[in-house]
Specification:
Layout lengths: L12 H4 L3 H12 L2 H14 L8 E5 L7 H7 L5 E6 L2 H10 L4 E4 L12 E7 L8 H11 E12 L4 H12 L17 H10 L2 E9 L5 H13 L3 H24 L4 H4 L4 E8 L1
Parallel strand pairs: 1-2, 1-4, 2-3, 4-5
Antiparallel strand pairs: 5-7, 6-7
């Protein structure tokens, strides 16, 4: 799911874990985290804008397929899913989670499928890892039939979380790369719209998610206990403080399609139609 020539990044599970069984356990645990549950909800909501039955969906840089069940329920036509990822553990983990799906080991910048062979392409949390994002989107467009759809999710450079990350990273004297050291850029609604338009897509709907950074207050509250070596207590305090801040996101999530609100969510999701 990262740049094809990149060396393995420490702490990134799709780079560090090679066995599908081990990977899928770590992946499912990661995707059950509150921020990731919010992202699945945002993607599912935007997929409901698809107004015609779809039969084949390609899941590009698929990971273990955390979005599949919700997406399959949201997209008309009960489509079949095809995973594409360059990591064997990811494709294997996808098949463990979804035995009925198909999978292919593939460099996402050189996707091996026939042109116009899919109705929908899901490109979730991948574009920010790639050097040539427009070339990637054009190749995805090649796979999708005319009038078909692409859904893209990424991180929003105008979000509260991004601004806090920039500030705290500057204080620590290091660059802000989000939560993954393989990120190469961030987007906002305007820049993402421009990239999709340049690649031959027409954006039709935007969504946002994760408005209040609930990890920050939890981290501040638990940090003193970590310094004292009280790791169990630190984890308990972290979860205790995180819960109410996480719950505060839900009123914002309900109205996240509103332009003035979605502009400030950490996650940005767009649905676009191939011209």
């Amino acid at each position: 799911m990262s740049r094809p020539a990149e060396a393995a990044a420490p702490g990134v599970i799709y780079e560090a874990i090679r066995a599908p069984e081990d990977y899928v356990h770590a992946y499912n645990e990661l995707m059950s985290e509150p921020t990731n549950r919010l992202r699945v909800r945002a993607v599912t909501d935007i997929l409901r804008h698809i107004d015609a039955p779809a039969h084949r969906v390609v899941d590009v840089a698929s990971g273990g397929g955390a979005y599949v069940d919700a997406a399959r329920a949201a997209i008309p036509g009960h489509p079949r899913f095809f995973a594409a990822d360059r990591q064997f553990a990811c494709v294997g983990g996808y098949r463990i989670n979804h035995p009925w799906a198909a999978g292919a080991l593939a460099d996402v910048t050189k996707l091996p499928f026939r042109s116009e062979s899919f109705d929908v392409a899901m490109c979730l949390d991948i574009i920010e890892h790639l050097d040539d994002d427009v070339a990637f989107l054009r190749d995805v467009g090649r796979l999708v039939r005319p009038g078909g759809w692409v859904v893209v999710s990424t991180h929003n450079s105008r979000s509260v979380t991004h601004i806090v990350g920039l500030a705290t990273s500057a204080l620590q004297g290091r660059p802000w790369l989000g939560w993954d050291p393989t990120h190469v850029r961030f987007y906002n609604e305007h820049s993402l719209r421009a990239k999709l338009t340049a690649a031959g897509f027409e954006p039709v709907a935007f969504n946002g998610t994760y408005y209040l950074p609930f990890h920050l207050p939890a981290r501040v509250a638990s940090w003193p206990l970590e310094l004292l070596g009280l790791k169990s207590a630190a984890r308990a305090v972290y979860k205790l403080v995180r819960a109410p801040f996480y719950a505060l996101n839900y009123p914002f999530e309900k109205w996240s399609g509103m332009p003035m609100l979605r502009a400030f969510g950490w996650g940005i999701v767009v649905l676009a139609r191939r011209r």
